[in-house]
Amino acid sequence: MSDTLFRHGKKRFYDNTKFPRGFAKSGDFTLGEEEILTLYGDTMQGLESGLLEPENAEEKHFVKVLANPGKAKSKLERVWLKYVQLARGRKRFHTLNGRTKPDIIGVDDYSDEEASLVEED
């Protein structure tokens, strides 16, 4: 990421509450995305919160992307939006059981006459 004008953070960025084992070990981020977050995350967080003022065109565009995520162009902007979604968004929870039971008719549910009619079809 040496081709970017974005400032490195004053310290490495970690989120020990949502990603206690690290970004890459969470399974949500690649090693490259983890590197972007740890190097630039402190600056991106400062720009988002208003503690830092943008110093160049790339940082100004980042601030605009925060207001309108559809305009994200750079990998750095997309990684930050992904981080925000995973860290602050609702966590999806998938269950194995559904809320409604499907109408499954077993062999035991038929009378002898109905079962013979089903077998003939």
UniProtKB/TrEMBL annotation:
Belongs to the MaoP family. It comes from Vibrio galatheae. Pfam families: DUF413. This is Macrodomain Ori protein. InterPro entries: DUF413.
